[in-house]
Structures are given as structure tokens and as C-alpha cells.
Amino acid sequence: MTINPDSKPRFSRGAKVLMLTSIGTFLVALDSSIVTIAFRDVVDDFGESRRHLLTWIFSGYNIAYAAALLTAGRFADVFGRKKSFLRGLVLFGIGSILCAIAPSAELLVLARVMQAIGGAILTPASLALVLPEFPVEKRAAALGIWGAVGGLAAATGPIVGGVLVDNFGWRSLFYINVPFCVLAVLVGHKMLTERIDTTAQYRLDIYGATLAVPGVALIIYAIVQSEEWGWFSLGVVGSMVFALFLLVIFVRHCATASNPLLDLQLFKLPFVVAANIAGLFFAIGFFAMFFTNTQWLQNVWGYSTSGSGLAFAPGPLTAAIVAAPAGKLAQKYGQAKITAIGALLLGGGTLILNLTLTQTPSYWSHYFPLMLVTGAGVGFSISTLSSAASAYLPPARFAMGSALSSTSRQIGAAIGLALVTALLAPTLRGIGETRRAADLSGTSLDLNNLNLGGFHQAWWLVTVAMIINAISMLLLFKRPTAQQMDLSGEIN
Predict the structure, then answer these.
(1) How large is the average pLDDT for residues 5-34?
(2) Nearest Cα to Cα of residue 23 among 195, 192, 188
């Protein structure tokens, strides 16, 4: 057998880097969804009295992740994206081990915060390592695959989580991360090429970080606490006002600093503005839809936790399948048009669900086909928004730009979950009271006389968010012109 020395390798270097960095992205996305399955088991382990504190394994994770992204993105640009990716993996892996062995609720929450910081460090670095490996005209397709990884993680999270918890306990959810982190670190150390922003001073904007981190954290904290405290409570309003005060000072600082944490020149680029607005509203709608649908399956149709995960999985699985070809379509027809199609599918499918779904379970004839429609909408949107926000960034701003996009989506996720939690709270309380009354009387559960308006309001929220998402891209998105970017990649 002869070997042709001119034959191309099976996988290009870009494909290998994409596969490797996707491991870290997959773990972070998986960990955001997989833990929700285990919450009841975690509470049973530590005791019902610790329930409120244990909600911070979600809230603390989201706050720390969102707050650290901007700083982590700039850190990667200045000190090295390879270093940031590997250090993020190490920190995420250590946090996973500490979560798995945590002897108390307090230590479990702290370990989740460590996980979140590790995830925030590796996420912008992973995207910044991928982008230079592909020419501009192929980045949309590559980012489509990168976005598909998140969809696949969301699809497999509830299923994998249910199997692991049922057979090995909730701590196995964290142990499973460790071998993947070790593998990615060992391979990445040998394969990845270090890349930095050569135009930046070799130091971090510490003053900017001390403003941005608590500013973003307080916004997420206020949103998370709004359901418990009330939107117009002193705690929520005070946190928001102080957060905005810090962020205003942060913006003024970035406008004059020589090496700012966030380069405000990015906002001269219409694609950055459009993609971040659209990403914010996509996250609001997506996470509102995710939470509302699972609550409907469990509380109205009576599905078990693992059953609802399986029932919901076709949507994210379809998103994962659609995301990669959607990236290629965006490359050919433009991100704005493909995002609008995704918004139409996701928002329109949810609207049909809202108008036609009944309390009588009709999974295969009704819910399943609409999950395929909305899942395709997510697939068209998630990959396209990733490429819209990052594909045309100046090389020196790859990590910073992707961190900005991730921060926008994380804030959107917090807003969506807070809004939908508030909308559903009265309805879920009514269902709970009706269920307890039925249990005490020994009768079957009957929800026919119960007002389920909270679900319909939540689904309307999804549709409206998707409309704003599409309009933002169609009206504002424009690829950068040659006049906006000089040959060095700086913004004019």
C-alpha cells in the first residue's frame, strides 16, 4: 500500500482546535442544565431546612459566571488565550471535585462559584482560539458547530443527569467532569498555539475590573432576588441603582483608559450592537421557554422529572442538528436573515403552543411536533448569533468581543428566568394547593377549574422576545466595512 504524501489529513488543524475547545464549552453548558435534575436529591441529602441556601447552587453560579466574563475575556486577550483556556479547565475541574465531595451546603455553593469562574475563564478563550484557525468566510460555519455543542449539551443534560442521579447519586454529576477536563488540558497543552493581543499593555485593567465585576454581579443578583423580594422592593431597587452607578463609572473609565477592560470602540461596529441586543432577547425567550415547558410537563401533565427531561429533549436535540448547517446558511445568506427565520420558528412555534395546548396530555400529536419546530428555531438562532457577534471581530478583540456577547446572554438568561418565575409563581402555588387538597381527600387531581394564565403569559413573553430579537438583527446588523477596519484589525 502506498501513501500519497500530498494527501490532506483527515482533520484540519482548525477542526482539531474546534473539537478540543468544544469539550470545555460542552462541560460548561452541560453543567448549567444537568444540576437542575438533581436539585431535589441535593435537598434530600442536606435537609429541607437548607433548601433556600441550596438554590444558590444555581444563583451563585449564574452571578459568578456573568460577573467574571468581561474580565476573563480581556485577561485572555492580554495574557494568552491558551493559558486562559487551560487554567479555566483546571479551575472548573477542581471546582467539580469540590462539589462532588462537599460535606455541607455552604461548601457546595462555594464550589459551584469556583466552577462558574473556571467556566467564565475558558468560554471566551475557547472561542478566541477557534476564530484565528478559520478565514473570515468560513467562521460562520465553524461557529455553527461551536453553537451546536451548546444545544447538544442542553439536550443531553436532563437525560444524562437523570441516569447518573438514579444510578450513582447526585455527586456523580460533578465527578463526570473530571476525566474530560484532564484530557482537554493534556491535549491542549501540546496542540494549542498561544495567541495574545500584541497591541495591549501587559497588564490588566484592575480598576475597570473592580467596577465591572460587582456592577454585573449586582444586576444579576437583583434579578435573581426579584421573585422573593419583589421587583420594587428596597433591596432590588437599591441593588439595581448601585449597579448602574458602578457601570456608568466603568463606561466613563473605559472611554479614557489606555488599556480598558472593555474597548468601547467595539460599539462603533453595527454587528456588535445588533448581535448583543438580539442575543440578550434570545436568551430571555429561550430560558423562559425552557423553564415554562418543563413546568407544564411536570405540574400540568404530571410527568416525572426524568420523564419531562426526555419529553423536552427532542427540542434541544433538533437545535444541535440544525445549528451547524444554519451556520453555513448564515455564511451564504447573512446572519440577519437566518436569525429572523430562527426567531419565526421559535416564537411562532411557541405562539401555536400557547394558543392550542390543553390540559389533556397530547405529546405525540401536539407537543412533539412543536418541539421540533421550536428546536429548529433555536438551532438557527444560537449558531447564527454566535457568528454574528464574533466572526468579524478584529483579531486583537476576539476574546473581549465573545465575552461581551456571553455577558449579554447571561444577563438575558437571568432576566428571562426571573420574569417567568414571577409569572408562573401564582399558578404553580395554585397547582400545589390543589394537589395537596386532592391528596388529603383521596381524590384524583383535577386542574380544570384552575387558572393556568401564568403559563400563557410566560409563552407570550417568549414570542415577544423573539420578535425583538429578529427586529434587532434585521434593522441594525451590518458587516463591517473596509473603512471601519484597517489592515491591523483596529477599529476606526
Answers:
(1) 76
(2) 188
